[in-house]
Every structure is written in structure tokens, then in C-alpha cells.
Amino acid sequence: MENEELSISKESEEYLEAIYRLEEKTGSARTMELARKLKVAPGSVTNTIESLERRGLITHKPYKGVKLTEKGRKLALEVLRRHRLAERLLMDVLRLDWSQVHDAACKLEHAITKDIIKPLEKALKHPKTCPHGNPIPTACGGIIEEKSEPLVNLNPNERGIIVKITEEKSDILQHLSTLGIMLGVPVEVEQKAPFDGPVTIKVGDVSHTLEHKFASVINVRRIRRMELRLTELRDGESGIITSIKASQGRGWGGRRAGRGWGLKKRLEDMGLTPGTRITVVKSAPFRGPLEVYARGSRLAIGKGMAERIFVEAKR
Predict the structure, then answer these.
(1) Are 103 and 170 in contact (CB under 8 A)?
(2) What is the CA radius of gyration of the chain?
(3) Coil, strand or helix: which one is 236?
(4) Widest pairwise Cα distance in the chain
């Protein structure tokens, strides 16, 4: 196996990697798709496919496309591992923009040999993903990645955190970055046109309409909404105020109930009304106050008051 791996040409490595990517996306790689992805003539694809099939690296069925064998998949993952580590090197160390690293890594990946890949990974502090969020295969060929789904799966008013961009073409990445669409950014779907039409999303306070081809390459982790007490948020976490609960007591005319409604009025006078976005800046230990940020101001709220504020949190 070692001798066979050493005899794999750069061209064959590129084919195996391209087949793997297409197979992940659609289940198989058709020759015309391979030709477009690799920017070669369809005739040359046919010749290389025949060569890879003779070596037991792929199977090819007419009209059904190409699939990797177990041996071919192992080699493809080794190439992909080198490629994505090269992308991290180019971005994290050489400070290239994330839209530039893919094309450069396509050349650099062939120069990364087995004797330097482990020191390279160690120097990069064992990254789990490439700069676009796609998983870096492990040394034994494993794929470990965060659960996500295409942005186009979300319905209007649903939200997600961007986890990865599955298409790494420079022009696509440049376009997305100009819109503020980067890894870790929360987005909300506002509108979806039928039949693979455009998708309107909200990034921060700005709305953008994306063609389906752009929206379909963005994978997100759905944001699950939950109602928590303000005191349950960690420092730096935010939420939208859903309600302010008055204390439970002896009835509407009782002393405790009166205090509760007075407390609610006081919080509302501070601008802490339902629908307000509030961020915990710092939480003091024990029964100390919470420092929060809301409506452009910093406020200090006692723990007893904060426990009556309920927020819609995103975790």
C-alpha cells in the first residue's frame, strides 16, 4: 500500500479529492461535473477515470457516475486532510484572506508529506476545521464535525449560527464576506421564495437577499429558543425580555403583591420592557448585583429584581 500511495500522481490526487467532494454533495460524481470542477476537457476526464478504476480506487457506472472505493476514499481523505491544514497555515500563519486560501492550498497540498504533516498540525494547535468551517479529517481518516444543515432548510423567522461554507470558490467567499456572512455569525431567515428562489436573511440589523446558489452553500446550527431568568445568563450572553413577573403573594391587595407590581413598574421605568434586548456584562458573586447593557446604557440590577426578568435566550 505504501508504494501505491507514493505512486499516486498530483493529477490523481486532485481527481480523488474532487470525486469525494461531489460524492458528499450529491451521492456520486458525474464526468461532466468533474470536468467543470477540475476545469479540464471531458475527454481527459474519461481517460483518468479509466486509470483510477483499473487501480481499484473508484467504480464507474455509465449514466450513474463515479464513486470512490474504500481504498480510494482513504486516499481522498488524506489529500483533503493536507488541503485543509494547508488552508489553516495560509490563513492563520501567513494571514491570507479566507477567500484566497482554497486556490493556494490546492497547490500546496501536494508538497505536504507524511513526515511534516504531524509537526504542521501540532504547530497549528490541532485545528478541527478549515477556515470555512469544513472538518479536517483525522490521521486515521475520521470525520468529526458539528451538526448543521443548509440555511435554505430554515423557515421564515427561524434563526441559525453559521457553521460552515461548503463551496470554497473565491468569488462566492468574497461576496459572502462583503455581506458580513462569516463563521459564527447569527442569521435569521425573513423570506423564502418558492422553487429555489432567493432567500432574504437578516445579519445583525441589515437584511440581504441571496440567490439560492449562495444560500445553499451556507450551513447553520439552528438556534433553539428558550425562556430563562436573567440571572441564568452568563457574562456576555444576551436575550430578549419576554416578561417581568410580579412576586406571588397574598393577593392583589396584599403587601407582597403590591411590592411585586411596584418592582415591575420600576423596571419598566428603567426601559426594561418586553421586547428589549439585554446583555449581562458582569454578574457579581453570591447575591451581588448584575451589571447589564440595554437601550444604550449600562445598569446595575439587584439579584432579586433580576430574578423576575425573563428573557428569550439563544444557546
Answers:
(1) yes
(2) 26
(3) coil
(4) 88
Domains in the chain and their CATH numbers? 2-68 (1.10.10.10), 149-222 (2.30.30.90), 225-314 (2.30.30.90)
Rounded to a whole number of angstroms, the distance between the first and last alpha carbons of the chain is 46
Cell of 14: 486532485
287: buried, middle or exposed (CB in 10 Å: 19+, 13-18, 0-12)? Answer: exposed
- The more confident residue out of 220 and 283 is 220
Instruction: Outline where DSSP puts E strands in the chain.
Output: 58-61, 65-68, 149-150, 159-165, 186-192, 199-203, 206-210, 218-222, 225-229, 238-244, 277-283, 290-294, 297-301, 309-314
- pLDDT (tens digit, 9 = 90+) per residue, 36-70? 889 888 888 888 999 999 999 999 988 888 999 99
**Cell 430554515 identifies what position?**
154
Residues 6+ apart with CB under 8 A from 266: 305
State pTM to two decimals.
Answer: 0.69
